[in-house]
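Regression test attached.
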Amino acid sequence: MSDLHVEVAAHHEAPEIVDHRQRLGIWLFIGGDVVTTGALIFTYLYLRAVNTNGSWMSVVGLPANGRSASTLQGILDDGGSMIKNIETPLSAGFAWLLVAVLVASVGLYWLGEVRLRSSASGRSAFIALSVLAGIGLIAYIVLSIVQLRQVPQYWRAENDSMLFIYSTYGSCMLALGVSAIIHAIILAFLSFGSATRAAVGVLSHEKWYQARLIRYFSVWVALASVVLTLVVTTLNVN
Amino acid sequence: MTSTLTSHAPAHTSGGGALRRLNFVTALIGGVLFGVLAWWLAHTFLDAGGAGYSDQVTVLTGCGWVVGFLLGIGALTGPGKWFTGRDQTHADEMYLAGKDLGRKRYFQYTTDHKVVGVQYIFATMALLGTGGILAMGIRTNLLTPGNHFVNQQVYNGFLGVHGMLMILGLIVAVAGPWANFVLPIQVGARDMAFPRLNALSLWTLVAAIPLLLGSLAIGAMDMGWVTQAPIANQAGIGFDLFAMSIITFTISTTVAGVNTICTVLTMRTKGMTMERLPIFAWASIFAAGLGLYAFPFFLVVMSLNLADRMVGTSFFVASGGGTGWLQENLFWLMGHPEVYVILLPAVGAMLEIASVFSRKPLFSYRTVIGGMAGLCGLSALVWAHHMFTTGWAPTLGGPFMLTTELISIPTGVIFLVMLGTIWRGNIWMRLPMVWVFGFIANFIVGGITGIYLSDIPVDNQMHGTMFVVAHFHYVFVGSVLFGAIAALCYWFPKVTGRYLDEKMGRISFWLVFIGTHVTFLAMFVSGMRGMPRRYSSYSMLFEHTNFVSTIGAYMIMAGMLVLLGAFIVSWRSGEPSGPNPWNAKSLEWMVPTPVPLENFEVLPVITSDPYTYGEA
């Protein structure tokens, strides 16, 4: 090919080949995400196991409860002292409610994909179910934020300044919660994007491959949330 | 074939959309604007009296920079188009591939793997060059005892940022340029599997570099590149940008790793079975796979570090119930596999070179693949040898010592395969091969001192000394950098159509080779006499060896400057090389130079492996 000045022809590949490549790609991304999630679970279990200074679920400090550092400083100046606060695990029921919302959203998306693949008329159902899944995911994000706000916060006086701290249990719940929210934001983007793409005909009965890729990632996120919730609701008290 | 796409192609005005107006300059403007906007928002809305306030402001500013930069270069137009269902047309794809754009395509979000490869060459040079300048600062400070070329705070900052710049630079030094430029052609593909992700990985890396350098400007971080807690929790705000740069970098490498693996596994041309795959392709997918395993730990450890500083979590803060051991575990779960992520592509490139310049088939092809697989598997099981002296899990010391010693077996296998390939070959001593011989000499020293350090009794004596520094510099400089330069010399004619200047290249080689031994052999002696690493001034006991090390370091720098000169001169006016100057048999040498936009007019059919030298 020495005639570089000729127009480059489009080298179209069969959709099946592109799909095969994209499937491998998504599995590899999921593999990387598995390691990330594994590292967070490792962190949780490690800190729970070592329980340094008995601080897994206890903090010496003053509960923050939305109070500012200066308010707390005032309490200390008035003779108040820091106390050892014993925490209890976050509500397991609420955690499983979150999982239910997430799994239901993923289920809706999967159902939509099934309908899309089954018949040409399934596109409308796919759009509706994708939008519903997206709404479910937004609800999941909101509920996750509500859950994160339940994680107790404390002020601790150290070296003439007030530090805002969490117990190690609270720290882990924050990290896992934020990770879950980031995943849910990506899924919501993908769900609404799927609906838009189906609406303009890019995703259709004939071209449903991308919906399957998104479903793979969705199912992984749902599975991870089940495993994480199982860990944090059963292996929480040291 | 002397024409280029620029000179003969007709004007092509359709396609590209918003990307037509976006380039490196708009990326910089976007990054600065969003960074300032994020800084202003953080200042306005965050509680200035709250703990972690300055860290929050710094991190948000860093996030603003990255988002603005990626918006400015056009990396986020793809997701936007995807979301709205406006997929790219063929004209768009051609524009993205840099068709008809001439030199402009090197400053844009271009998807052509060859352009991305060249962009990676310059990104790597920026990383290694800046890291090298910092190394000169460090060595100048250590020239004499009590020297105050820079103050201690700056010295510590130099150490940390030098370390990380070099690590990042070496991670991409071979995998960046050559797994992009060469690999798709080697396997008979028209491009990488995901061209837009390919460009994303490059520009994400570029976005990360200013963050890392910016950390120096705002106080750096004084705990070395290992970001050890609790020092990291107490460091200044420079650490925040440092951690942001790492998080950004892990996204870049993950995307690049997925792309590399998918390209090799799914885009091979007809007849390119896995057993006919060039060894560089094997090395690339092993390194990419290992990176996919290792770098998420980097992401997590840096994120948790930032969380401790920004919002008061207690992951690594002992007073809050956390532990520095957790940080060390997470860090080294990444840290040791990362060594092989760096090493494997360089070794793969040098095995290619060894075969071509010895005019012999690669010795024991399957064995070296087994060696690479063994290296990858074992590298995930050795991390705690970095923690022998920390007191963490002493009972696990024995098993980790064993796994670390075991890893010398696959390493030795790869080394023997290289020697076996060269053995009794008809050696053609051109520039790439010279650097391969340099690697062989250096890697022996780096490898064997590594075995010493894997033994707990020796490690107890040597840990935290300059001996360790000398060991890993023999691996990174003496081995990986030599491999990266060998790869540059080897594939330079394919990129430019010209040879890299042989004479200047050899001068560079001898300066760097002798400089490496002068620097690091003297450093071994400093270490064995007990000089701790990371110290900015030292006892008179170490005066002479440090003086010698600094002189050696200047030699390395001089050699690298000569190489840079050779690079510039050769690119502009080097001796023309033709499409296959080395008479090599892998596919990248079968296509014209410059390589056409989609590499092959008709995809080739492969009937043998690329190492059939000396066969009928």
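Expected vs. actual: identical. Chain B touches chain A through 71 residues (CB under 8 Å).
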